[in-house]
Amino acid sequence: MKPWELDVSGASALAHYIHRFSASNGHAIAAFGLTPGYLRAERRGFSTFEFQLEVAAPLRAGDLVRVRSALLHVGASSMRVLHVMTREPDGTRVAALEQLGVHLDMDARRPTPLPDAIRDRARALLIPT
Predict the structure, then answer these.
(1) For residue 28, what pLDDT is reported?
(2) How far apart are CA 128 and CA 2, in angstroms?
(3) 3-state SS of the chain: helix, strand, coil percent to 5?
(4) What would the pLDDT profile of 1-36 be if each residue is shown by its tens digit?
(5) Is the pLDDT of residue 99 over 80?
(6) pLDDT score of 128
(7) Percent of the chain at pLDDT above 70?
(8) 89 preceded by cis ω (within 30°)?
(9) Considering its fold, how many domains does the chain have in total?
(10) Which residue from 27, 51, 35, 42 is spatially nearest to 112, judged by alpha carbons?
(11) Which residues of 32-44 are buried (b: 16+ CB within 10 A; e: fewer)?
(12) Is residue 101 part of a domain?
């Protein structure tokens, strides 16, 4: 955590948890084919319609963090992704975000089915719940 990411209490501001989880989501969805190139070329996006944030412990300036992400569900157009943030090197869980979203047609501004090949790659990465 950088000093400018702290709130007045000296702990990380919520926005900085969300920023890290958003960056992790980009990596997670790219792993099965929703890459920046695909999203630009096909005029697609990932639209989050719900998220559940849990903050278990405060982060302080100088803390090192790791975010691990996993796919929990893949539907025709919807996905549920879990992100868990730990303080390193001890691995203490400090926050988690469950993110529910859809594959979005950017022109129609509506959910659109994932292409079969991308959906198949995503389903191969699902973790049991």
Answers:
(1) 95
(2) 35
(3) 30, 40, 30
(4) 787 777 788 888 888 889 999 999 999 999 999 999
(5) yes
(6) 82
(7) 99
(8) yes
(9) 1
(10) 42
(11) bbbeeeebeeeeb
(12) yes
* Domain boundaries, position 56: 3-124
Tell me if 57 sits within 8 A of 63, measured CB to CB.
Answer: no
Whichever domain contains 63, its CATH number is 3.10.129.10
Query: In sequence order, what are the residues at sequence separation of 6 or more whose Cβ sits closer than 8 angstroms to the Cβ of residue 102?
Result: 46, 47, 49, 77, 78, 79, 111
Whether residue 58 is contained in a domain is answered as yes
**Is 49 part of a structural domain of the chain?**
yes
pTM of the predicted model as reported, rounded to 2 decimal places: 0.88
Q: Are strands 44-55 and 78-88 parallel, antiparallel or unpaired?
A: unpaired
- Of the candidates 46, 64, 25, 51, the one whose C-alpha atom is nearest the C-alpha of residue 102 is 46
